[in-house]
Amino acid sequence: MSKGRFGIHGGQYIPETLMNAVIELEEAYNKYKNDPEFNAELETLFNEYAGRPSRLYYAERMTKDLGGAKVYLKREDLNHTGSHKINNVLGQVLLAKKMGKTRVIAETGAGQHGVATATAAAMMDMECEIFMGKEDTERQALNVYRMRLLGAKVHPVTSGTATLKDAVSETMREWTSRISDTHYVLGSVMGPHPFPTIVRDFQAVISKEIKEQMQEKEGRLPDVVMACVGGGSNAMGTFYNFIEDTSVRLIGCEAAGRGVNTAETAATIATGRLGIFHGMKSYFCQDEYGQIAPVYSISAGLDYPGIGPEHAMLYDTGRAEYVPVTDDEAVDAFEYLSRIEGIIPAIESAHAVAHAKKIVPTLPKDQIVVITISGRGDKDVAAIARYRGEDISD
Ligand SMILES: *Cc1c(COP(=O)(O)O)cnc(C)c1O
User: What is the value of pTM for the model shown?
Assistant: First the structure.
């Protein structure tokens, strides 16, 4: 496999002006990724600051209720800042510091990655600027305030549809204009090489821990691991250390929005085609002319028109399965997990719970399914109430 490629996917489709930045990043990453001091520092941040390892929780009530395979939940919702995003952010900000950078920039959609980046920047004493679609700054005003509280500057992006994809484009432009002191903390397993590899490696702690914890609790490998997929970072983290264990089924759950047969969907594998965008070759939702299509999901974190290149390869080779889950199914699962286990999941994570509700009853009782709960659902409660027609406006 040639450098930075996952099968035919990945690569570096970027302007000449960004080449020096990604080459510098790749060289630094290659230097530090096997450096014992760097890894010891990162492990301390993970354990002491982010609260790792996250629990692998046996969902006994859900298991009994579904009447099939045994269900475990990987609790990334318990991390500091409430999701898996902190794993990648701590890794990248630490790397940026080692590279001598004094400023980090990042895109954000709903604000989860922006808040995580602002958190790590505050803690490691870096300047921080976040680019967020203007539309999103209005929908997620509380997260804008959080980022400012943490010392970050937030720039509303007005180009295009003024949402996540435009925020990514704007952050890339900003990086191009100021690479000497600035690192771009990309939020998922996407973008030009080496980002998909770097983000995957920092998120791979999820599957490393699942493997160890499952060995401790059950003395064997799980039969299925599953996670929701936006760009695909929590899913890549969940899959990575199981890719060679071919007995383990890998299932990614995409946001189908109002359905894969409607225009209001974000299910890239189900509805997308091969294309090039944001520096990478992969699958993207496109219109008939090949323009990136506007996408929709109730879940802001899954509302991205593409999928990371390593997922595109795992799909091509058949090693992983990708399934669409609608808004309706995700909202049902959001309420289900809240009531049956006393765990309010992020609406993103609820997409994985929804698919688990479909397949777990069909699997034998001696099988084991692990669902990654990528984040906590406090942020989503008002939107779900609105979806159900309840007015809880504050
Ligand atoms: C951002 C986010 C996602 C989607 O991002 P991936 O890169 O696909 O993991 C999923 N869940 C939560 C809680 C998020 O904040």
Answer: 0.97
Extended strands (E) in 30-184: 56-58, 70-75, 103-108, 127-133, 153-157, 182-184
- Does residue 203 have its Cβ closer than 6 Å to ligand 1? no
212 contact partners, CB below 8 Å, separation of at least 6: none
CB of residue 327 inside a 6 A radius of ligand 1:
no
For ligand 1, say whether the CB of 299 is within 6 Å of any of its atoms: no
Alpha carbon separation from 137 to 133, 157, 167 (Å, rounded):
6, 9, 11
- Give the number of other Cβ atoms within 10 Å of residue 305's Cβ: 22
Look-up of token digits 């997620």 = 140
CA dist 225 and 36 (Å) reads 30
Q: Point out the ligand 1 atom lying closest to the alpha carbon of residue 233.
A: 7
Q: From the CA of 348, how far away is ligand 1's center (Å)?
A: 6
Ligand 1 centroid – CA 75 distance (Å): 13
Q: Tens of pLDDT along the chain (394 residues)?
A: 567 999 999 999 999 999 999 999 999 999 999 999 999 999 999 999 999 999 999 999 999 999 999 999 999 999 999 999 999 999 999 999 999 999 999 999 989 999 999 999 999 999 999 999 998 898 889 999 999 999 999 999 999 888 899 999 999 999 999 999 999 999 999 999 999 999 999 999 999 999 999 999 999 999 999 999 999 999 999 999 999 999 999 999 999 999 999 999 999 999 999 999 999 999 999 999 999 999 999 998 898 999 999 999 999 999 999 999 999 999 999 999 999 999 999 999 999 999 999 999 999 999 999 999 999 999 999 999 999 999 776 5
Strand order of the sheet with strand 280-284? 5-6, 9-10, 280-284, 273-277
- Site to substitute for ligand 1 among 74, 75, 76, 85, most atoms within 8 A of C-beta: 85
User: Are β-strands 182-184 and 103-108 bridged in parallel, bridged antiparallel, or unpaired?
Assistant: parallel
Is the C-beta atom of 81 inside 6 A of ligand 1?
A: no
Cα–Cα distance, 261 to 7 (Å, whole number): 29
Catalytic residue numbers read 85, 107, 374
Residue nearest to atom 2 of ligand 1 (CA): 301
Q: If you ran DSSP here, which 8-state letter would residue 293 be given? A: P
